Amino acid sequence: MKRKLVILGGGESGVGAAVLAKKKDYDVTLMDESSLKEGYRSELQKAGVLFLEGGVNEDELLNADEVVKSPGIPEKNAWVKKLRAKGVSVISEIELAYRHKGESKIIAITGSNGKSTTTSLIYHICKTAALDCALVGNIGYSFAKQVAEDPKPLYVAEISSFQLDDIVRFRPDVAVLLNITEDHLDRYDYRFENYIRSKFRIAMNQTSGDYFIYNLDDDVIIQYMERNPIHSIQLPMSMKQKVNQGGYIQNDEMHVKTGSEEQSMSVYDFALKGKHNQYNTMAASVAGATMDIRKNKIREAVQTFENLEHRMEPVATVRGVEFINDSKATNVNSTWYALESMTKPTILILGGVDKGNDYTLIEDLVKEKVKAIVCMGVDNSKIHAAFDGITRLVDTGSAENAVQAAFQVAAPGDVVLLSPACASFDLFSNYEDRGKQFKEAVKNL
């Protein structure tokens, strides 16, 4: 008898899981309560996967041997509650991919901020060293689909807490935990501890031969590790103290050591600027060193890396006003990092779907650096409550209006920074859509 697998959710990860499951001879059906994107629909048809859109077949769902749940579906979803009540095994797409990856290795990266940048940089280091690898996970390409269609000996995977929530055996050879700050609390019953525990699942199945790279300067991480032992080889990174193994930065010099090999490099040679990116670069360099990549290749990759779209991306300078697209900043900490790296007077575009944001985190930076805040959301009341009386506030309801309002406030030599600190689902389909509309509006000035 074939194992009966139901995929719940028909986005990138769900379709990838379906394609892999079909290839591995499961009896597979994909269900999505809304309609599928045309591209995904044709992919499923091509793979010969049965799918149901615009609804769920309850009997079939509850009689599955196992269900692969999209990371976007929360625990409080009615179908998930029914599956839990019946005791049906629910896993994530990365768990399915892990089971079928064979002997391949995984470098997995998580953290509240800097995941995409660090994952991309690790991938760039591996490619520079001519390793045969793929970039997968939360960064946009399904891990399961990669395993199904073009398996590689090494996967560099960006992993979100939502993906980690439903792993069972998933075990990366190298796990990277960049930082933990309050984010997605709406998914974790507004309990920070639940979110912290979720992030640490990246290391839960690791054994004594695996590596765990973590931020020694992050109090949340250290306090958790004091109470919950990690079984893998620990490689801390710090800007505050020297470490024997791992990475540290002192006097603008990065030192990386795994085993007996040591490497040093000036932070002025890093392609990525800003203090937060020094942590990202350090994490990526330590990860590269665990793969026995030569020092000169790590150095070359760190110097030649190009930053991601929607992450502190320079868009244009219009009549002396610089525009920066940081649409990927979907939480307050990301916006804090963006503001921290600003050296010119800043007009900040904020707003979107609030995930339980605490704006006091950026209050001092707003006082110090921000000339005006342009609100861009359906409901801007929380931003007004936080910043009324601190700086000038302007309300807008679209990317185009926000860019025009910011441009009117700005003077030559100023920066307009889109760093919303919120999810994008009120006015946009996702942060990429928000960033693209922002860039389009800047071009139309």
UniProtKB/TrEMBL annotation:
Pfam families xrefs: Mur_ligase_C, Mur_ligase_M, MurD-like_N
Q: Any idea where the Mur ligase C-terminal domain is? A: 310-422
Domain Mur ligase central, which positions? Answer: 109-287
- Protein family membership: Belongs to the MurCDEF family.
Q: Which NCBIfam families did the record assign?
A: murD
Function summary: Cell wall formation. Catalyzes the addition of glutamate to the nucleotide precursor UDP-N-acetylmuramoyl-L-alanine (UMA).
Q: What is this protein called?
A: UDP-N-acetylmuramoylalanine--D-glutamate ligase
State the species of origin: Flavisolibacter ginsenosidimutans
Gene from which this protein is expressed: murD
